[in-house]
Amino acid sequence: MYLLAGRTGNGEFLVVPLDSTGLETAPARRLSFAEFLGEVVAAEQGLPRWVWEDTSRLYPLLLAAGVRVQRGHDLRLCHAILRQSALTSTSELATAAPSRWDSGPAAQPEAPEPHSTLFDLGFADDGLDEDPAEDDAQAEFRRQLTAVAASAEPGRLRLLLAAESAGALIAAEMQFAGLPWCTEVHDRLLTRELGPRVAPGLRPERLEDLARRIRLELGDPQVNPDSQQDLLRALQRAGLTMSSTRAWELQKLEHPAIAPLLEYKKLARLLSANGWYWMDTWIVDGRFHPEYVPGGVVTGRWATRGGGALQLPRQVRGAVIADDGWKLVVADAAQLEPRILAALSADTAMATAGRGTDLYAGIVASGVVETRDHAKVAMLGAMYGATTGESGRLLPRLARAYPRALGLTETAARAGERGEAVTTRLGRSSPRPGESWLATQAQAQAYHPGATDADERRARSQARDWGRFTRNFIVQGSAAEWALCWMAEIRRELRLLQAPEGTVPGRSPVFTHAPHLVFFLHDEVIVHTPAGLAEEVEQIVVRAAATAGRHLFGDFPVDFLLTVATVDSYDQAK
DNA sequence: ACGATTCGCGCG
DNA sequence: AAAGCGCGCGAATCGT
Question: Which of A91, A248, A308, A338 is most buried by a 10 A CB count?
């Protein structure tokens, strides 16, 4: 059963029961927020799917009131998928003129203030926009159901929409719960690396020392190591030939200034990206509450807004510490993208290489290449479109051993070079290139009177760029789908784990008493769990990976191996 | 003075 | 070691 929910113009909530085609089975009910909460809790007994416009705007209100739901359908996210998908390209939804449903990803009215966001604003705040007429949402839902039903792959699309919507619920829940963060440990780490905290704008002691040494070794008392051009000029004056100040270029050089400079760059990065200012801004009551943006990346991966949650450096992961009596279960899908590629292309040889073992090691064991590093760099090259270097040299050997897998990436690349879209396992299609791309291609056609050699070169290079994008899209996007299914399954099973105690489904202090997801990083999750349940959580996470594999690829025999660890702090994992 | 762009680097 | 994909963010620098 579906329950359509939304807000009316005057702050009331509307709930409409719908049948499987999106038609109402009972009149809409107008409810106060308190009534709405009661309705949600009561309805959860029947495991409905909540249909609403935007999970990221409505669900935080429920979470703040202590209410969770199990299943959802996010109209905004699902619209974006169906609008673009090659599987639904002839549907009314895809062919209609652009509407408000095409306004793009989560147009946030204002940047969230870290200290006054969803966790404490409650629902008295009127800053939220009102949902427009519910008719509109219902009509959109019906268009979506129709588009899916008429598509060539309704089963896959249904799974994709369910997974995307589950992701939206999880994203809101993870932001609400937050990642356990120990500011004392973080502060000690910063002090050990940088020296005692100083006022913003000043260099901590260690950085100041290093800056002094750099100036001394370069014989330039003025040079500012924070200024790239300043630094580049000073390095060139010291006789070093280089075109940038990138760390990997510096590493190749022999000069007494290089070592302190590399150290300076590392520490300056730590200070500016995850220093005391970051800590004060983003850690609230021992929790890091990043804002996740499901569907924020073209391929279907998540993005985040603020805090750089998806770039948490290994350096500071020691500050992610489980509460007393709790543990972190950290799980990482091993060589996810190559495994996805093997399954996508039904390449049984590649799947066999990864059966029960590190896939790169399996490639070595099959005699395709000599070392694990070679296997890895060659695989990445195949998925990213490398042509030169080590990776380019190894590719032919990989192609001989795994013709189906490599054939799939090549086909995807050729499609992109022609300006065509490619589609993931569950039905997310890549965007078409823009007008300027098409214009450049047309311009370079041989028969075009104005075309020059330079035009042609530029067009070919641009076509190859787009080919590398589509080549990667199909793998990265399908891997993102697997990860969504994995996480949705973990969430579902965690809920069953806590159910037997006679709790009310919609209302339970999950985030203080029961295992729950607290972090997601493309192919990695963290569950915060009471220590006594950690073993069961590990089993759930492993089982969920196998289930996700079956959901996407049926019986195709590819393993999705995980590295799983139960730890007290994030840096203890792998 | 201030918004947009570039560089460099963190993550997968 | 680093080029081939996808990102976000901060500081310096550019452009107005």
Answer: A338
C-alpha dihedral sign at A533, A539, A542, A545: negative
Strand partners, A327: A529
Positions in chain C where some atom is under 7 Å from a protein CB: 1-14
User: CA–CA separation, A59 vs A387, rounded Å?
Assistant: 46
Å between CA of A162 and C1' of B10: 32
Residue nearest to nucleotide C1 (CA to C1'): A248
Q: How far apart are CA A335 and CA A56, in angstroms?
A: 31
Rg (Cα) of chain A, in Å, rounded? 26
Q: A388 is written with which tokens?
A: 């030169």
The 10s digit of each residue's pLDDT in A348-386 is 999 999 999 999 999 999 999 999 999 999 999 999 999
Q: Degrees (nearest 5) of the Cα angle A381, A382, A386?
A: 40
Token duo for residue A22:
């999106």
| Contact, A269 CB vs strand C, < 7 Å | no
| Whether A452 CB is under 7 Å from strand C | no
Q: What 3-state class would DSSP assign to A524?
A: strand
Joined together, the tokens standing for residue A440 give: 């450049």
